[in-house]
């Protein structure tokens, strides 16, 4: 099937949202037992961590770690937001810079000012959106970011979204005092699909859609660490406790350019593979053999591939042994769907 298809369904009681692009699984959201990123807590400051400038705090979902915690005293209540999924055995990663994010608008209480997505270049569109922002935010001290999908949205829908997020922010910010409490849960899979997959797409909501559109088959294939990259070769993607190892291998092609072809094909598909598998943290690529002069072309392919990826990824660079390192936010949970 050509085009974009969003499948919203449940599998064995687990809520799942899948995005198919031209018949191939491009993205997936699913619920886990872990707290959802975006969850807002009223936490209680516990104990500072000397030398790191951070503090452990108490939340209803367990201990959390707050970076750059200044001026806090043990026992003090504080509003914090979960930024990503915690590593096994570690505290919840938290921030004081709370965001209220929706499909069209992001309200930023700690960052005043009205801003339009930099991906919107048309000056007339920017002026129209800025007028909407001024009209809805008025003299509010909170900041606002209008997202790129506002370009194709109706002005009334944008205004409604801004008001909803501003009202929610006002409500949550009024909950400064009290015991540790979950004030707002992060969006679930279907909510994230509506929020993040804003490009035009057909939407399938009927029961059994995951099977009908071969989503479960695609998820089953992800259980294997081996990924075939067309005729260029194959890639092994394996997670350890310390890092994610990506090993690129050539296929039957024995020409001098075989290594470069395999590496370029792997670079193009790597963001999708990491996204679907829920992998983040330190990522080490072991490319197929190629000439040093081809490294720049490989780096360019990686940058182009990750440019449109919504998960923050830092391309660190080459090691002495010829590996390429990346640092990626743990924005997704490890793939955990019962396919038995």
General description of the model:
It is a single chain. The chain has 340 residues and is of the alpha+beta class. The protein is built from 7 helices and 20 strands. A 6-stranded mixed β-sheet has the order 15-16-17-18-20-19, with helices on one face. Strands 4-5-6-8-7 form a 5-stranded mixed barrel. The chain has a 4-stranded mixed β-sheet with strand order 3-2-1-14, with helices on both faces. The model has no long low-confidence stretch (mean pLDDT 94).
Classification by helices and strands: alpha+beta
The total number of structural domains is 4
The CATH class label of the largest domain is Alpha Beta
Approximate helicity band: 25-40%
CATH topology of the largest domain: Aminopeptidase
Number of helices: 7
> Which range does the strand content fall in?
25-35%
Descriptors for this entry?
340 residues, alpha+beta, OB fold (Dihydrolipoamide Acetyltransferase, E2P), 4 domains, 6-stranded mixed beta sheet, 7 helices, globular
């Amino acid at each position: 099937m050509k085009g974009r298809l969003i499948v919203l369904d449940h599998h064995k009681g687990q809520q799942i949202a899948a995005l198919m692009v031209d018949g191939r699984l491009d993205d997936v959201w699913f619920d886990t037992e872990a707290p959802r990123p975006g969850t807002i807590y009223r936490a209680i400051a516990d104990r500072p961590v000397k030398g790191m400038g951070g503090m452990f705090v108490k939340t209803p979902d367990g201990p959390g770690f707050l970076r750059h915690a200044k001026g806090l005293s043990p026992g003090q209540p504080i509003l914090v937001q979960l930024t990503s999924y915690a590593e096994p055995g570690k505290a919840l990663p938290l921030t004081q810079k709370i965001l209220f994010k929706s499909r069209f608008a992001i309200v930023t209480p700690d960052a005043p000012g009205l801003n339009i997505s930099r991906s919107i270049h048309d000056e007339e569109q920017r002026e129209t959106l800025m007028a909407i922002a001024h009209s809805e935010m008025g003299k509010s001290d909170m900041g606002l970011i209008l997202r790129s999908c506002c370009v194709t949205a109706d002005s009334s829908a944008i205004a409604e979204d801004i008001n909803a997020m501003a009202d929610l922010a006002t409500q949550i910010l009024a909950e400064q005092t009290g015991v540790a409490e979950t004030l707002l849960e992060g969006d679930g899979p279907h909510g994230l699909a509506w929020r993040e997959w804003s490009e035009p797409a057909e939407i399938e909501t009927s029961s059994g859609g995951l099977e009908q559109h071969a989503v479960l088959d695609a998820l089953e294939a992800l259980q294997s660490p081996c990924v075939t990259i067309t005729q260029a070769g194959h890639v092994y993607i394996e997670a350890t406790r310390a890092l994610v190892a990506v090993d690129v291998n050539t296929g039957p092609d024995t020409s001098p350019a075989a290594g470069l072809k395999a590496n370029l094909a792997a670079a193009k598909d790597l963001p999708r593979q990491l996204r679907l598998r829920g992998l983040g943290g330190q990522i080490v690529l072991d490319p197929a053999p190629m000439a040093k002069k081809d490294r720049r072309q490989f780096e360019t392919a990686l940058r182009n591939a990750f440019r449109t990826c919504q998960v923050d990824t830092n391309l660190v660079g080459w090691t002495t042994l010829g590996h390429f390192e990346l640092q990626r936010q743990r924005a997704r949970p490890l793939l955990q769907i019962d396919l038995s």
